[in-house]
Design brief:
Blueprint (H helix, E strand, L loop, with lengths): L19 E5 L3 H13 L3 E5 L2 H10 L4 E4 L8 H10 L8 E5 L4 H9 L4 E4 L4 H20 L5 E3 L2 E4 L4 E4 L2 E3 L3 H12 L5 E2 H9 L7 H15 L6 E4 L3 E4 L2
Parallel strand pairs: 1-2, 1-3, 3-4, 4-5
Antiparallel strand pairs: 6-7, 7-8, 8-9, 10-12, 11-12
């Protein structure tokens, strides 16, 4: 399934954005609503109604962002997200999950797989576009930020390569885990509240609970091994990376 990018006038049109967005949604009415509103904002839009089609399209022509429904025929959205994060060509592509599954466990599961944001149905097209814009801005900011590696003891963070190593050995992190570690390591000794962490890695409008941040911290510590002890819990406040 493919969608064209013809322009339709709208009251909240912005200058052409040029970024290409892959929308993965099996409900035709929602797919058309998404396509219409994204094209109206200047984005180039491709569409897929099945998970396997989304993976094929993303690998053939890597998009700037993926809007991903979880409840898909065939390969479901969680597996699509997991596969995109495993593939070197698509592992850094931002993913915004859009789904009717709004339970906290579903949100945590999506974020743990590496989704950059999570929007539940029913949704406001304007809010969704704002979320997409925020995710793309964060991605652009990361791309133009200082590419010098951050080194603290055995931990080395390479922003340009989107790579983390501990004692010279590369550690596989999700995009969310990478941003979380980078936020803490950029200001060693500084205490971040869970709310601050959520805003910095997911955007101010993201629906992220304190528990989901705790779960992500636990997962990050586990992947870092002994070096994970450098991420300290400050009781009643939040977290910091030891100086």
């Amino acid at each position: 399934m493919g969608c064209g990018a013809s322009h339709r006038p709208g009251s909240w049109h912005r200058p052409m954005a040029h970024e290409r967005i892959l929308v993965v949604e099996d409900e035709e009415e929602i797919l058309e609503l998404l396509r219409y509103n994204l094209v109206k904002q200047g984005y180039r839009v491709s569409c897929a109604g099945r998970g396997e089609d989304a993976l094929r399209m993303a690998r053939a022509d890597v998009p700037d962002l993926v809007v991903l429904d979880l409840m898909l025929p065939g390969v479901d959205g969680m597996e699509v997200c997991r596969s995109l994060r495993r593939d070197a060509a698509t592992q850094a592509v931002p993913i915004v999950i859009l789904t009717a599954k709004g339970e906290e466990a579903d949100v945590v599961a999506g974020l743990e797989l590496g989704a950059d944001d999570y929007v539940t149905k029913p949704f406001s097209p304007r809010v969704l576009v704002a979320r997409i814009r925020a995710v793309l801005r964060r991605k652009a900011a990361e791309a133009v930020s200082d590419d010098a590696a951050i080194r603290i003891r055995d931990v080395a963070i390479h922003p340009g390569r989107h790579e983390v190593s501990v004692g010279g050995k590369v550690v596989e992190l999700t995009a969310t885990e990478f941003r979380l570690l980078r936020v803490l390591a950029q200001r060693p000794g500084w205490v971040f509240t869970r709310h601050q962490i959520a805003c910095l890695i997911h955007g101010g409008d993201a629906i992220v609970t304190d528990r989901s941040i705790d779960v992500q911290i636990v997962g990050l510590r586990k992947k870092l091994g002994p070096a994970g002890r450098s991420i300290e819990t400050v009781r009643g406040v939040g977290y910091r990376f030891k100086e």
